[in-house]
Specification:
With 590 residues, the protein is of the alpha+beta class. Helix content is 45%, strand content 28%. A hairpin with a 4-residue loop joins strand 16 (489-495) and strand 17 (500-503).
């Protein structure tokens, strides 16, 4: 064969190979040079690649180094149709492998990319736009997609990887419309013979769901930790078979230990329980493990500083299919304050019960409808009914009919919130029909949370003797008034503490005051008798009382401009220190 014929034939072979290479590239929608990358990143099966090279009787490196390698291959090949058929078969397998890879990328959302560090050229897989929300053709497109707050740290991560020639790994955000996505990128580097970075070949994937889940988990853990701290509730886990314990931070704190400062063991746990409680707790755990009984216990622990805490603990054992106890999970709660509050409440209840039963006055809880709910012995004595008999009746049943309307009006005001409490004097009709005078003070008990009315709290004092004494005083007053009137006199009373002068009806009439006037402020009184100074007048009276137990004064009353000649009889009332507190006496016409 002549040299010219051989050259023409070789040219034909090379042209054919270039056409085939172009066909492969077009079938894959890539450039012909991209076909040379198939050997990197696992994009085709390595076995198929070596098989293709063997059948072509060339070095497989030709697929990596482009047209020159193809030329070498074609120059070394003969025009055997059998060889061409085998080569076509393997190229078809390559394209099918590439198609499978593209399908896997679409399904998984994985984007492959290559970055030429020297030229800044980038080559992304066709699904990159779906991930980044924009086409990535240039390196500037990539940086424009990255969230502004993540650009600097991402550049630093890339530079650090390039400087150390280590694998690159980073997570960053991109903004797609109003949506923010988290992207995870992983890459390996290709270096030259002098270990200088040439390319980065990597993958990127959307990890937004994972990041959101992690954020939700962290938030949930933070909320749980805060809730445990507020409730003084610590969780724990015990691997029974391996005797391995894991406690939450709050569980450590409850027992007075620095969180996670050491590994908690069952031995250390039992050592913290006061000695008198250990056997009982050990037995409760044994019954939970061996018999599946519920585990809920209360015990006391001693803290490192010597103080004590009350603990309420509950747990649940998990068993395998054979009934063997595997794990126990539970929670320990510091209930010291609750226990102290319960103790204080019980003590308060005991004190109240003693006061309730031994009080010198009647005490009752009364329903909002007036029924006696709970009464003490003194109230039963006042009205002559036994406690059980009273609890089948209402206060309306016992109240004297003439006093009931006023009592019910006061109760309505109390229930409406117009008043906080009321106190009235009224009559009860006893079981034997007698009438007893009582002073009733009533307030409203409300629910501590809803503030809804619960019941009435009523204190009943027997004032029969006081009422009788008051009646006697009133009778004596009336008799004295009649006696004074018989000699043309009437009574008056000056309270020096509150500055009020009280006049009997006859006294008010004598000095010409309007009907119904029973009291004057002292300034009006002193002006009426033309006294210039209260202090000077009282000093003059005190001088008279120093030599006499009473004073007799002649004065003129100028209330309405017409003077009335009066005689005042004045008697002092003094306190324990001897200071005058009141002046009482009589007055009459002179």
């Amino acid at each position: 064969m002549s040299q010219t014929t051989f050259a023409a034939r070789l040219k034909g072979v090379l042209d054919t190979k270039r056409i085939m290479l172009k066909q492969v590239a077009e079938a894959l929608s890539v450039s012909p040079s991209a076909v040379h990358k198939w050997t990197r990143g696992g994009e085709i099966e390595y076995g198929n690649l070596r098989a293709l090279a063997d059948f072509l009787e060339v070095n497989w490196i030709w697929l990596r180094y482009g047209e020159e390698a193809v030329g070498d291959l074609e120059a070394a090949s003969n025009g055997d149709p059998h060889i061409r058929a085998i080569r076509q078969k393997h190229l078809t397998e390559i394209m099918e492998s590439e198609a499978r890879m593209k399908f896997a990328q679409e399904v998984s959302g994985i984007v492959t990319w290559e970055w030429n560090v020297l030229t800044d050229a980038v080559n992304y897989s066709s699904n990159a736009e779906k991930l980044f929300g924009r086409p990535i053709r240039l390196i500037e497109d990539f940086w424009a997609a990255v969230h502004p707050d993540d650009v600097a740290p991402l550049r630093a991560a890339l530079e650090a990887a390039l400087a150390r020639l280590t694998p690159y790994e980073a997570e960053f955000r991109v903004k797609v419309g109003d949506e923010v996505r988290w992207i995870a990128s992983r890459a390996t580097q290709v270096a030259d013979a002098d270990r200088r970075p040439l390319k980065m070949i990597g993958i990127s994937i959307d990890v937004t769901g994972r990041r959101l889940a992690e954020a939700a988990r962290r938030k949930s853990e933070a909320i749980l930790a805060k809730a445990q701290a507020i409730a003084h509730l610590g969780s724990w886990f015990w691997d029974i078979q391996n005797d391995d314990c894991a406690w939450s931070d709050e569980a450590y704190r409850i027992f007075g230990w620095e969180p996670q400062a050491f590994k908690v063991t069952m031995e250390r746990y039992f050592a913290s329980i006061v000695e008198e409680d250990r056997a009982r707790i050990d037995e409760a755990i044994r019954l939970a493990i061996e018999e599946g009984r519920p585990y809920a216990v209360d015990y006391t622990i001693a803290l490192p500083d010597g103080s004590h805490r009350a603990i309420h603990e509950e747990g649940e054992v998990e068993f395998d299919a054979t009934g063997r106890a595997l794990t126990m999970i539970g929670a320990s709660q510091d209930v010291t304050e609750r226990k102290l509050a319960e103790l204080a409440y019980r003590e308060s209840e005991e004190r109240f019960r003693e006061i309730f039963e031994q009080a010198a006055v009647g005490i009752a809880h009364v329903g909002l409808d007036g029924r006696w709910l709970k009464v003490n012995r003194k109230l039963a004595d006042i009205v002559g009914y036994g406690p059980a008999e009273l609890e089948s009746r209402s206060f309306q049943d016992l109240t004297h009919p003439d006093d009931l309307d006023e009592n019910l009006a006061q109760l309505d005001s109390l229930l409406s919130g117009a008043i906080a409490t009321y106190s009235i004097e009224k009559r009860f009709v006893k079981k034997n029909g007698e009438v007893v005078w009582v002073n009733v003070t009533t307030s409203l008990s409300r629910h501590p949370l809803t503030r809804e009315p619960l019941h009435l709290i009523t204190v009943i004092e027997d004032i029969s003797e006081k009422q009788l004494a008051r009646q006697r005083i009133e009778d004596a007053y009336r008799r004295s008034e009649l006696a004074l009137q018989s000699i043309g006199m009437a009574s008056w009373d000056w309270d020096l503490v509150d500055g009020r002068v009280t006049l009997s009806a006859a006294a008010a009439q004598l000095i010409g005051l309007p009907d119904g006037t029973a009291a004057l402020d002292e300034a009006t009184f002193l002006a009426g008798i033309r006294v210039a100074s209260r202090a000077q007048w009282l000093a003059s009276l005190d001088a008279i009382f120093a030599v006499s137990s009473r004073a007799q004064l002649d004065v003129s009353w100028h209330g309405d401009g017409r003077p009335v000649a009066l005689t005042f009889s004045v008697l002092p009332v003094r306190d324990a220190q001897g200071a005058m507190t009141r002046l009482i006496g009589a007055l009459g016409s002179r």
